[in-house]
Amino acid sequence: MLRNTTYALGFVFLLVNSSCYYDNKEDLYQYIIDEECTATEATFITDIVPIITDNCNRCHRNGREDGNVNLEGYNRVLPYAQNGQLLGTMDHAAGYSIMPPSGPKVSFCDIEKVKLWLDAGALDN
Asked: 0.90 exceeded by the pTM?
């Protein structure tokens, strides 16, 4: 009798703890995907430099090149922009290291600005 009661309690415990589970995209992605982004163009100096300064240069700058990556200045950013690493790491795309590794993900609108800049040819403007 005790054995059947133990099995029954175990079954109820499993049933309760494996009930429906719902994630919402805000919790999963650390930013609101539906965030309004009105940017229609982006330039290196006005848009990309502040994004890199705020999100990357703490670890990837002159004097501190974590992972042998220095993102200080256009000529150092361009190779990572051209090979997809800049956007891939910021957007947490499959196959790329997640950057920044701790703290919040780069905002949706900032990622959109990087995409706009890349689509326009990743110019030094």
From this structure: no
